[in-house]
Design brief:
single chain, hpI Integrase, Chain A, 4-stranded antiparallel beta sheet, alpha+beta, 18 helices
Length: about 425
């Protein structure tokens, strides 16, 4: 039979099983018709003496002409030694992006900090897997990642973190020989403005009052220590009692808890020690801030104070209201803090620097290894700069005095020029400019 669109449409189903009508012209190309009148295009071929049958696709999704063109293309590849059926079977066995995510998080257990793993899992669950999770790893293209980036344009910082995570995941996929390139590797990130927010003394006082009245004082103590130590949120939340020497007033941060992956010994101020001594009186277990109890057992350390921070900021007048639609269409108020918990670290550093503390010392307290990291607070240490700036009016006074002298000289020159003009009947243009 000559497989054409008309011939396919006219082909009758067999009473049982299926029947294949082979094409008169293209070797191995055929139309398979089942008893249920399901029609599919197939290609028979032989590789290493073994007979194989490759299903191109169903009619009418595939037209006869399109199926013939596909069969002709595959026939050329088969003659060069390729096996289309094996390639399809291999593709079906390829991991999905969700599989890659699982492997990546297993790898991260020993390679990344707990806080980083928490954030990675949150981005995977909320953003990456809903969009890309069901796709094959090999099927992801640059445009897929760019499309995901564009969908996050309203939150550029979040978009950049997602891009970084995808790039790292596909980099590991290359290491594991799952694919040969990184589709997220060279995509340009959104511009990020460094956050330069810090709380004033008045705002800190309002925050302190709100924390005193907050029902969960364990969470409030976590926020107090964030303010009083300038530590990173994950360092405070993951802290354990054996890390603290309350007699000497020192917090020993082990390398696996710090961002720089080195052990730090941080002296504690009196206010922080007062909080810790009070907490130690009701200490339960090793964690300063235990996680939730599940079936009578505590699940490690607390991982976030997001909700307590929102409530405390709201009570302190440091949050902005917005509205979301409820189940019945009624607009419900929600609150967004005007500051991040990480801004408490900026606040700690900013107030120290603004009171004349040495940048190097502040950097040591913050655990900075690069002086340039602490230098972002240098604009707050304005005592010396203000002294220099205050001397500028003196410069202005000198300028004014100099200007008066120049004007006097020009006045004398003008009188002389007038006299000369009267005498000679002409104006010496050059003299006026001297």
């Amino acid at each position: 039979m000559n497989i054409t669109q008309r011939a396919v449409k006219a082909a009758k189903p067999p009473q049982t099983g299926n029947h294949i009508h082979y094409d008169d012209e293209l070797r191995g190309f055929g139309l398979r018709v089942t008893a249920a009148n399901v029609k599919s295009f197939v290609l028979n071929y032989s590789v290493a003496g073994r007979e194989r049958r490759f299903t191109i696709g169903r009619w009418p999704e595939w037209s006869a002409d399109a199926a013939r063109a596909e069969a002709l293309q595959w026939r050329g590849k088969i003659d060069k030694g390729q096996d289309p059926l094996r390639e399809r079977e291999a593709a079906r066995g390829e991991p999905l992006v969700s599989d890659l995510a699982t492997d990546f998080m297993n790898w991260a257990l020993t390679e990344k900090r707990e806080k980083s793993r928490y954030e990675d899992q949150r981005m995977l669950d909320r953003i990456i897997l809903p969009k890309l999770g069901r796709h094959r790893v090999s099927a992801i293209e640059r445009r897929d990642v760019e499309s995901l980036k564009a969908s996050l344009a309203a939150t550029p910082v979040q978009a950049n973190r997602v891009l970084s995570l995808l790039s790292k995941m596909f980099s590991k996929a290359m290491d594991w020989q799952v694919r040969t390139d990184n589709p997220a590797g060279k995509i340009k990130h959104y511009h990020e403005e460094k956050r330069d927010l810090w709380l004033s003394l008045k705002q800190l006082q309002a925050l302190a009052s709100a924390m005193d009245n907050y029902p969960d004082q364990n969470a409030a103590d976590a926020l107090r220590l964030l303010i009083l130590t300038g530590a990173r949120p994950h360092e405070v939340l993951g802290a354990e009692w054996p890390m603290f020497d309350l007699q000497r007033g020192v917090w020993r941060k082990p390398s696996h808890h710090t961002k720089q992956k080195k052990t730090e010994h941080v002296p504690l101020n009196k206010a922080a020690l007062e909080v810790l001594h009070r907490m130690a009186e009701s200490r339960v277990g090793d964690y300063l801030f235990p996680g939730r109890e599940i079936k009578g057992e505590t699940s490690g350390a607390r991982t976030t104070v997001r909700n307590p921070w929102t409530q405390v900021c709201r009570a302190a007048g440091l949050a902005t209201v917005y509205y979301v639609a409820g189940k019945r269409g009624k607009m419900l108020p929600r609150w967004r803090p005007n500051f991040h918990t990480h801004d408490l670290r900026h606040t700690f550093a900013s107030h120290l620097v603004s009171r004349g503390q040495w940048l190097y010392t502040v950097g040591e307290l913050l655990g900075h290894t690069q002086p340039g990291t602490t230098k972002r607070y240098a604009h707050l240490a304005d005592g010396a700069q203000r002294s220099v700036a205050n001397s500028f009016p003196k410069v202005m006074a000198l300028k004014k005095l100099s200007a008066k002298r120049v004007t006097a000289k020009k006045g004398k020159a003008a009188v002389a020029a007038t006299a000369l003009t009267t005498a000679q009947g002409r104006v010496p243009a050059l003299m006026a400019g001297d």
